[in-house]
């Protein structure tokens, strides 16, 4: 099982490979805000754990295991962003909030949240009622 830090790398590598077809150490470092040497160390660790294949100066490739986990991590991240937006979280904080909670939820809780998002996406009239309720709550809190 990957650590939260390993998950961040796998998620970013998966996204880069989906977007560009490749993931370079410099690209990973830029997106994660870390030094390239830190990326190299983590990539070597992910290689040892069979999440990817890394050859110095030649690049890296996700293994089947790495692709599967990377895809799941991206889906989890997207679902959490959808959930926070659905409940009316401040857009300015959505990304950082997801980063703060995504590694700490059980799969059961994630399944429940996914069901919640799907339910409200399927019932826009109830979503409108929820937004009205939230607006009313905020108005009361301000007075």
From TrEMBL:
Predominant subcellular localization, coarse grouping: cytoplasm
The record's subcellular location field reads:
Cytoplasm
Keywords in alphabetical order: Activator, Cytoplasm, DNA-binding, Manganese, Repressor, Transcription, Transcription regulation
Q: In what residue span(s) does the HTH dtxR-type domain sit?
A: 1-63
Q: SMART domains, per this entry? A: HTH_DTXR
Q: Which residues form a coiled coil?
A: none
Which family, according to UniProt? Belongs to the DtxR/MntR family.
- Assembly, per entry: Homodimer.
Report the protein name in the record. Manganese transport regulator
Q: Which organism is it from?
A: Exiguobacterium alkaliphilum
